[in-house]
Write a structure and sequence with these properties.
The structure holds 2 protein chains of 2 kinds. Chain A has 16 helices and 11 strands. By secondary structure, chain A is of the alpha/beta class. Chain A has a domain of 296 residues: Amidase signature (AS) enzymes (Alpha-Beta Complex), CATH 3.90.1300. Chain A has an 11-stranded mixed beta sheet, with helices on both faces. In chain A, helix 5 packs parallel to helix 6. Chain A is globular, with a radius of gyration of 21 Å. The two termini of chain B are 32 Å apart. A two-stranded antiparallel sheet of chain B has the order 1-2. Chain B is mainly alpha-helical. Chain B has a domain of 37 residues. Chain B is 34% helix and 4% strand. The chains are: A alpha/beta, B mainly alpha. The interface between A and B is large, with 69 and 52 residues.
């Protein structure tokens, strides 16, 4: 029962073959049986979810139709939920209860969704493995000794392990796509500005986007229809027309141009991963897409530019955690200055502190031009690369990561190696374009999932959805079950 | 990189072990970041924001604001509707 997609659940619920209460109970039953192994959640919202399910059943019985009516959904624990904790998997927000809902939560609830709980993440979304959670590391449902990716690793693992029907994550440098790739599920980072960030705890404000993590592209389309669109509460949410993404599922890919950036297939990529991605591209060709070679020459500089910009923005965003207005406060202080310092020392984990220091450095007097301004200029070059490449094609296809899910602990002592895990995903955030990860194969003895990344023009999620849907109709990678 | 100065700017009281570890790790990261200097960016405009937005206005319509109570409730220390902090002077 819990293995179904949103699309399937909607049909069963509307035809009354299944009630929202039964579905929600089945999902919690599944959580009870596998969560101890996977540890995808930061905390559950069982009682509220059951109430929401009952309310959904009442609405269904009245004949109401809503896109997510009665569908159990999980939220990454940096999306504010009024009346329930939002911790960012950080000690500093351990007991924080937001006084308002994020806009996406209001939209999900208006659409009838049942919120089952908040998923684990790298603290403040800083990390690529979920090992930076202050709670516990989440395990990959395909191999429990491996990471689920990050920072939305809890959301991706929860979807892969069927502990929810779908989830929301957030993506600042690959945090939706990389865990989706590692966990064999579908993850879409929308265009910067497509989805409201109001109520999303900020990491790097010019890069962050909320997006769906789902069992299929069709489910991502359903969620995008609900969460996308202008929001007056977020001045950076774009006032551009919202297409019907469900319509995009029915479009053909014949004659569409698929750009292959040669830089993504040289150097560090594992041969088996490259083969799975190339096979995926062959599949799209066989469906009538025409491949063209494109170039994104500044790929090699993306990680460096990203860590300057993301850490600079993080160091300012995280200055608000000072033990005064909300969150943790140290017990160990006798004046205001050491209250700030001890609160932040005790409340933040190691990676967060490392990035605050790095961000403070690149913004500090005497270094601003050499680092921060330089990073912003290189960001322009990367953005122009995509504009040029996307003039020659409709969608770009590339790997999501150079390798499949790595072992827990493997990269923990080497922050730079961890940062380089995001080499193929970071550019889309710097350019602000939409990008999606879909399963395209399995590699190695442990049968680990590999993701194919599709990137498009600003506000052209519809083309990604069309290409992804055609791919999933022709393949069955996305319906393979994690062994957990 | 002067880690003690930066920690002070960022209001972080790092332990001695952290200071040493971060100095080494951040040294490696900054060396990596300096590969950006291979690029000539003299005539390139910086990008702070991809959509190039400016002056976004919303409708001038009154909405229900959060109350002081909603906000003060989240504070680790408050008294009589005010935030409480350790002595400043």
């Amino acid at each position: 029962m819990y293995r179904i997609t949103i699309m399937q659940a909607r049909e069963l619920l509307q035809s009354k073959k299944l009630s929202a209460v039964e579905l929600t109970q089945a999902v919690f039953g599944r959580i009870d049986s596998v969560e101890e192994k996977v540890k995808a959640f930061a905390h559950l919202m069982r009682d509220k979810a059951m109430q929401q399910a009952q309310a959904a059943d009442a609405r269904i019985n009245k004949g109401e139709e809503q896109p997510l009516l009665g569908i159990p959904i999980a939220l990454k624990d940096l999306i504010c939920t009024s009346g329930s904790r939002t911790t960012c998997s950080s000690k500093i927000l351990d007991q924080f209860i937001a006084p308002y809902n994020a806009t996406v939560v209001n939209r999900l609830q208006a659409a009838g969704a049942v919120i089952v709980g908040k998923t684990n993440m790298d603290e403040f979304a800083m990390g690529s493995s979920n090992e930076n959670s202050s709670l516990h590391p989440t395990k990959n449902p395909w191999a429990l000794d491996r990471v689920p990716g990050g920072s939305s690793g809890g959301s991706a693992a929860a979807v892969a392990a069927h502990e929810c029907i779908a989830a929301l994550g957030s993506d600042t440098g690959g945090s939706i796509r990389q865990p989706a790739g590692f966990c064999g599920v579908t993850g879409l980072k929308p265009t910067y500005g497509r989805v409201s960030r109001f109520g999303l705890v900020a990491f790097a404000s010019s890069l962050d986007q909320i997006g769906p993590i789902t069992k299929s592209v069709a489910d991502a389309a359903i969620l995008m229809n609900v969460i996308g669109g202008k929001d007056q509460q977020d001045s950076t949410s774009a006032d551009v027309p919202m297409p019907d993404f469900i319509q995009a599922l029915n479009q053909d890919v014949k004659g569409m141009k698929l750009g292959i950036p040669k830089e993504y297939f040289t150097g560090g990529i594992q041969p088996e991963v490259e083969k799975a991605v190339q096979d995926g591209i062959r599949t799209l060709e066989s469906l009538g897409m025409q491949t063209v070679e494109v170039s994104l020459p500044h790929l090699d500089y993306a990680v460096a530019a990203y860590y300057i910009i993301a850490c600079a923005e993080a160091s300012t965003n995280l200055s608000r955690y000072d033990g005064v207005k909300y969150g943790y406060r140290t017990n160990n202080s006798d004046n205001l200055a050491n209250m700030y310092e001890n609160t932040r020392e005790e409340g933040f984990g190691e990676e967060v502190k490392r990035r605050i220091i790095l961000g403070t450095f690149v913004l500090s007097s005497g270094y601003y031009d050499a680092y921060y301004l330089k990073g912003q200029k290189v960001r322009t070059l990367i953005k122009q690369d995509f504009e040029n490449a996307l003039e020659k094609c409709d969608v770009i296809a590339a790997p999501v990561t150079p390798y499949p899910a790595f072992k827990i602990g493997e990269k923990l002592d080497d922050p730079l190696q961890m940062y380089l895990a995001d080499i193929y995903t970071i550019s889309a955030n710097l350019a602000g374009i939409p990008a999606m990860s879909i399963p395209c194969g399995f590699v190695g003895r442990e049968n680990l999932p590999v993701g194919l990344q599709l990137m498009g023009k600003h506000f052209d999620e519809a083309n990604l959805i069309t290409v992804g849907q055609n791919f999933q109709q022709a393949t069955n990678f996305h319906i393979q079950e994690a062994p957990v | 990189m002067d880690i003690i100065y930066l920690a002070k700017l960022a209001r972080l009281k790092l332990t001695d072990a952290e200071k040493e570890r971060f100095s080494n790790q951040l040294g490696t990261i900054i060396k990596y970041i300096e590969k950006l200097n291979e690029l000539d960016t003299q005539n390139v405009e910086p990008t702070a924001h991809v959509l190039g937005l400016n002056n976004i206005f919303r409708d001038d319509r009154a909405t229900e604001p959060l109350t002081d109570h909603d906000l003060i409730n989240d504070s680790p220390a408050s008294s009589k509707g005010h935030y409480e902090v350790p002595k400043i002077i």
